[in-house]
Design goal:
alpha+beta, archaeoglobus fulgidus dsm 4304 fold, two-stranded antiparallel ribbon, 4 helices
């Protein structure tokens, strides 16, 4: 089972996670979706963003009855080989038992570490990194996800649920 997760923050230090669970990379529709509000989340710490986002993601993952094998996050797993991002910290927190794939919309500085993929007719790449599988393989997985635009349909749905512009199904 696959799960895409995105988190949004409001001005009151509350976080809302949107989670979309689906069976196959090519699926157009989720098996289930969830929205989870976390009040009084940790403050933002420059260079330690994962400390703020990690508890929200872990709580959102606990909402599903599905056995998740791969988690897709909005952002980087690793910025560089020896520079972990949110996804690497998540992978480590889960004892390496799940594949974590990060999909970022912008390049980290001038890094060439991420796998660049192009989707739809977009001239702008997505930057894919992973823990548990090679970046190239993760990029191929994201490449085959449903949706005709740059961002895969189910990743956009997780974002919409986190923003409150789409209601979860379960």
């Amino acid at each position: 089972m696959l799960a895409a997760i995105d988190v949004q923050y409001d001005t009151n230090d509350c976080a809302t996670a949107g989670m979309v669970a689906f069976q196959n990379w090519i699926d157009e529709n989720p098996l289930e979706t969830h929205q989870h509000l976390v009040p009084n989340c940790a403050p933002y710490e420059p260079g330690n963003f994962y400390r703020r986002e990690m508890p929200v993601i872990l709580e959102a993952l606990a909402l599903t009855q599905q056995v998740i094998q791969t988690i897709i996050v909005d952002g980087y797993v690793d910025f560089e080989i020896d520079q972990p991002g949110l996804g690497r910290h998540l992978h480590d927190e889960l004892d390496g038992n799940m594949v974590v794939i990060g999909v970022a919309k912008s390049r980290f500085h001038d890094s060439q570490y991420a796998e660049e993929i192009y989707r739809g007719e977009s001239q702008k790449p997505l930057f894919v990194t992973a823990a548990g599988i090679p970046n190239r393989e993760a990029g191929a997985c994201v490449q085959q996800m449903a949706g005709e635009f740059r961002m895969p349909k189910l990743l956009k749905l997780a974002d919409s649920i986190a923003r409150g512009s789409h209601q979860p199904t379960k």
